[in-house]
Amino acid sequence: MKLKARGTQNTMIPTASMADIAFLLIIFFMVTINFEVDKTTVGLPTTQLRFEIPKKAAYISIIQSGQIRVSSGEEISVPVPGPENVLSFAVDVVANNPGKPFVLKADKNVPYRYVDSVIDALKQARAEVIYLLSEQDKLEEGADG
Q1: How far apart (Å, rounded) are the C-alpha atoms in residues 109 and 96?
Q2: Per-residue pLDDT averaged across 51-80, rounded?
Q3: Which CATH number belongs to the domain containing residue 79 in this structure?
Q4: Closest CA to 86 of 65, 99, 105
């Protein structure tokens, strides 16, 4: 008895779901990515107590030379000429989002007059919460604290 050969099946990989998987991966990465809005590098002063800073805070950075950079927390920080521009920036942020916290990130070698003028500008803009960014002292193991 002669066996009849069946027709060969075309082998193929189903690619219809690959577009769905790629789309889901893109959405996943878009939702989970965190952009750093203030990339200004400063040497922070040390403290013994430090609080967590909210993720969507507005940032104001002062580098050692006295240059000031601002960011509303949504975009990359940009330089401003002086403290009077910090006031107009802070007024805009408070007007658009009342209660939004501000993070002041100043180099430890910056003259205090720059920090004081920025804090005064934030007070005049009626900023409710101001964080001063610092590094926390490392406590020795076994030390009571």
Answers
A1: 33
A2: 85
A3: 3.30.420.270
A4: 105
